[in-house]
Amino acid sequence: MQPRFGTRAGTGYPLAEDEPGGRHTWASGEWALRPTLVTFDCAQTLVRVDWQPSVIAVKSASLAGIAFDRQVAAEVYDRKLRSRWPEFMQLNLQRDESVLEDFWQRLTVDWMQEAGLPISRAVQVIAHANELLFGEGSEVFTLYEDTLPCLVRLQTAGYRMAVVSNWDNSLHRTLRMFNLTGYFEQVLASLEEGVEKPHPGLFKIALERTGVRAEDTLHVGDNPLDDWQGARNAGMRALVIDRDADVQTDVRITSLLQLAEVLGV
Ligand SMILES: [Mg+2]
Fold first, then answer.
1. What's the confidence (pLDDT) of residue 139?
2. What is the pLDDT of residue 110?
3. Distance in Å, CA 122 to ligand 1 centroid
4. Could you tell me which of 191, 262, 200 has the C-alpha nearest to residue 230?
């Protein structure tokens, strides 16, 4: 059966009704050729992300013991962040974590001032925000159970690995918080590189920096457009991870442990 292409979010990723039901043919197709490099998307692939900046800001101020109108404060925060997003994008190009830390601190102080919150408490608010984001039991980032076992198996088997992610500079800190940094020889955050998936440019930077050919690379990500189509457009092989799906197919895995199986490790 020929898959019908082009109807899922404008991608070539096959529609559900066209997927071979439950049967996969890894050994027979392009999978017989093992990749040298495996690149991973991060958000909803390696790490579950629920990032709502104004929610974090409001919660941090509440934890700092400040009484205020949460709805108004959230609206002010969203507006301020939106208006400063171009600056945020520019600063990311500097690839300096302290520059971005300064950006968020200034944003917090200015937000508190405009929303009528006492800026004398800004230090506490910022500390609570950092804890909610990157502390133990983070409410924003959660490591999937299958991530570490998969990375360990691939690394032990000698696969080279990289991260190719639509993310800001905090990607590095997020990977550090889960002790994942050591598995990857390259970590690419789109905002630091100035190009975003599905543009093949971000994938091509990964190939340049690792010196691996596109056809020797497999990309794994949750987004059919950004990850699957983007990687294919860069000449790479690709797999979508969909942990909510029932069955594995030629183009989709439902757990990162299946990736290890596919690669024979
Ligand atoms: Mg993703």
1. 87
2. 98
3. 32
4. 200
Please tell me the distance between residue 233's alpha carbon and the centre of ligand 1 in angstroms: 17
Query: How far is ligand 1, taken at its centre, from the CA of residue 190, in Å?
Result: 12
> Are 239 and 220 in contact, with CB atoms under 8 Å apart?
yes
Start-to-end Cα distance in the chain? 30
Indicate the pTM of the whole model.
0.89
Distance 42 CA to ligand 1 centre (A): 6
In tens, the pLDDT along 219-248 reads 999 999 999 999 999 999 999 999 999 998
C-alpha 252 to ligand 1 mean position (Å):
14
Q: Mean pLDDT, to the nearest integer, of 190-199?
A: 97
Residue 143's closest CA among 45, 220, 47, 40? 47
User: Over 50: is that where the pLDDT of 24 sits?
Assistant: no
Domain boundaries, the chain: 18-49+142-262, 53-134
Architecture of domain 18-49+142-262: 3-Layer(aba) Sandwich (3.40)
